[in-house]
C-alpha cells in the first residue's frame, strides 16, 4: 500500500525536493494534498503530475488563478481547491494522509502542524518556526497523540540518525554544524553596505530567500538550536555550534564516553527528506555519494558570537523561554522581509531583533492564544523600527 503524503509549501525549496523524491519512487508514495503560496503556474504543474485530491492557495485570488490554469490545461480529473488559513488547515489534517511534510516558511506553520497532530498524522518537520514558537505545546500534543515528529532539516536529521547509536541518557552534547552562510569570510565592517543579491549567494545549499538570509545572519542556526532543544530534550548547555564551511558533516553527537558519531554526506536536502519518508528504513535514491578522497580536508572553526550576535540572541531567547523565542523568530521574519525589500540594511536585521526582544515582557508558559498574540506584537514592533 502506498504511503499517502500531504505537503505544506509544495512550491518552495523543500516542497519541490520532496516531490522529486516522491517522483523517484512512484510505486511507494501517493500525494493526497498540497498547499502553496502564489506560484500558481508551478502548483498547476504539480497538480497535473501528482493528482492530489485537495489543493490550497494562500488567498482567494491565487485559488482563482489556479482554477483557470487547470481548466485551460484540460485537467482530466476533479480536484478540490481551497485557500487561506482554512485551506491550510484542511490540507494539514487531510483524512487521507499518513504523513504531513511541513515545508511552509515561518510561524504560519504552527496551527496546521497542531491540527495534523490532533488528527493523528505523522509529521515530517521542515518548519522549524513551529517548535521555536510553541515547542512545549507541539511536543506535548505529539506525546499525547503518539504522533512521530521526524526532522527534515539536515542538521536535525543528522542528530536524529546519530542518536540511533546510543541512548539519550548517554548523550554528553550535540554539535550542530553551520556553513557560515554567504558572508562567512567577511568582517563586520565589510557587512555594512552588502546588497540583497550578495546575501542570497549561499556557498553550499540551494534554499529559499528567507532561509538563505537567515544563514548569513546565523539566525537560522540559532533557530536550529532552539528546535534541537525541543526535539531531543537537551539543555542549551548541551547544544554546541561550530562553523564547518564544507557542509559535509551535517551534525554530530558526543556521548559520555567521548565517542563522537557524525552523519556525513554531500549537501543534498533530498537525502534527509527521503529518510523522513522511509524511516525507520533506508532506501536507495537518485543521490550522489560522498567521495572522501576528493573531499580532502574538512575544516571546523569556533562560533564567534561577536561576529554573529544573532546566535547569542537565540541562546538567550531559548534559555529565557516562554514567549521570548516566539518574539525572536517573529522579529527576525519581519526584519528579513524588510531587508529583502530594501527598507533596511543587512546589519539592521540584528538591531531590530535585539530591540524587540529588549521591549518584550515574557509570559513564562504561554497558551496558544498568548503565543499568537506575542507573535503579532513582535511583528508590529519590528515594522516600527527604522521606519
UniProtKB/TrEMBL annotation:
**Which key words tag this protein in UniProt?**
Isoprene biosynthesis, Magnesium, Manganese, Metal-binding, NADP, Oxidoreductase
Q: Which InterPro entries does the entry mention? A: DXP_reductoisomerase, DXP_reductoisomerase_C, DXP_reductoisomerase_N, DXPR_C, DXPR_C_sf, NAD(P)-bd_dom_sf
Q: Which SUPFAM superfamilies match?
A: 1-deoxy-D-xylulose-5-phosphate reductoisomerase, C-terminal domain, Glyceraldehyde-3-phosphate dehydrogenase-like, C-terminal domain, NAD(P)-binding Rossmann-fold domains
Give all residue intervals belonging to the 1-deoxy-D-xylulose 5-phosphate reductoisomerase N-terminal domain: 5-135
Q: Identify the EC number(s).
A: 1.1.1.267
Metabolic or biological pathway, per its Swiss-Prot or TrEMBL entry = Isoprenoid biosynthesis; isopentenyl diphosphate biosynthesis via DXP pathway; isopentenyl diphosphate from 1-deoxy-D-xylulose 5-phosphate: step 1/6
- Tell me where on the tree of life, at the top rank, the source sits: Bacteria
Q: Which residues bind 1-deoxy-D-xylulose 5-phosphate?
A: 128, 154-155, 179, 202, 215, 220-221, 224
Q: Where is the 1-deoxy-D-xylulose 5-phosphate reductoisomerase C-terminal domain?
A: 149-232
Q: Which reaction does it catalyse?
A: 2-C-methyl-D-erythritol 4-phosphate + NADP(+) = 1-deoxy-D-xylulose 5-phosphate + NADPH + H(+)
The answer to keyword DNA-binding applying to this record is no
Q: Where is the DXP reductoisomerase C-terminal domain?
A: 264-380
Binding, NADPH: 11-14, 37-39, 127, 129, 208
Residues binding Mn(2+): 153, 155, 224
Q: Which HAMAP family match?
A: DXP_reductoisom
Q: What is this protein called?
A: 1-deoxy-D-xylulose 5-phosphate reductoisomerase
Instruction: Name its species.
Output: Insulibacter thermoxylanivorax
Q: Which gene encodes it?
A: dxr2
Amino acid at each position: 500500500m502506498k504511503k499517502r503524503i500531504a505537503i505544506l509549501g509544495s512550491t518552495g525549496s523543500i516542497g519541490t525536493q520532496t516531490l522529486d523524491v516522491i517522483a523517484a519512487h512512484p510505486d511507494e508514495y501517493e500525494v493526497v494534498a498540497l498547499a502553496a503560496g502564489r506560484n500558481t503556474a508551478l502548483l498547476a504543474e504539480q497538480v497535473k503530475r501528482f493528482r492530489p485530491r485537495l489543493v490550497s492557495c494562500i488567498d482567494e485570488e491565487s485559488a482563482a488563478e489556479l482554477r483557470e490554469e487547470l481548466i485551460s490545461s484540460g485537467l482530466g480529473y476533479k480536484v478540490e481547491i481551497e485557500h487561506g488559513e482554512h485551506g491550510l488547515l484542511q490540507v494539514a489534517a487531510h483524512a487521507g494522509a499518513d504523513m504531513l511534510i511541513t515545508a511552509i516558511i515561518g510561524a504560519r506553520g504552527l496551527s496546521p502542524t497542531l491540527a495534523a497532530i490532533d488528527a493523528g498524522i505523522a509529521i515530517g518537520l521542515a518548519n522549524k518556526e513551529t517548535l521555536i514558537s510553541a515547542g512545549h505545546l507541539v511536543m506535548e500534543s505529539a506525546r499525547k497523540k503518539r504522533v512521530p515528529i521526524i526532522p527534515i532539516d539536515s542538521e536535525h536529521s543528522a542528530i536524529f540518525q546519530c542518536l540511533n547509536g546510543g541512548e539519550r541518557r548517554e548523550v554528553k552534547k550535540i554539535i550542530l554544524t553551520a556553513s557560515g552562510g554567504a558572508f562567512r569570510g567577511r568582517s563586520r565592517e565589510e557587512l555594512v553596505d552588502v546588497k540583497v543579491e550578495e546575501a542570497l549567494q549561499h556557498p553550499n545549499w540551494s534554499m529559499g530567500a528567507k532561509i538563505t538570509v537567515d544563514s548569513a545572519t546565523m539566525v537560522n542556526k540559532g533557530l536550529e538550536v532552539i528546535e534541537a532543544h525541543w526535539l531531543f530534550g537537551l539543555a542549551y548547555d548541551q547544544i554546541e555550534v561550530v562553523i564547518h564551511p564544507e557542509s559535509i558533516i551535517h551534525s554530530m553527537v558526543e556521548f559520555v564516553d567521548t565517542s563522537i558519531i557524525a552523519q556525513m554526506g554531500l549537501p543534498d536536502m533530498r537525502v534527509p527528506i527521503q529518510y523522513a519518508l522511509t524511516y525507520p528504513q533506508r532506501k536507495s535514491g537518485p543521490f550522489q555519494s560522498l567521495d572522501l578522497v576528493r573531499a580532502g580536508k574538512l575544516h571546523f572553526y569556533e562560533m564567534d558570537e561577536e561576529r554573529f550576535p544573532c546566535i547569542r540572541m537565540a541562546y538567550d531567547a531559548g534559555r529565557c523561554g516562554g514567549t521570548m523565542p516566539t518574539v525572536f523568530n517573529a522579529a527576525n521574519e519581519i526584519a528579513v522581509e524588510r531587508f529583502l525589500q530594501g527598507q533596511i540594511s543587512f546589519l539592521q536585521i540584528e538591531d531590530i531583533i535585539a530591540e524587540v526582544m529588549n521591549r518584550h515582557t515574557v509570559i513564562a508558559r504561554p497558551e496558544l492564544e498568548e503565543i499568537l498574540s506575542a507573535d503579532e506584537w513582535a511583528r508590529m514592533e519590528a515594522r516600527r523600527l527604522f521606519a
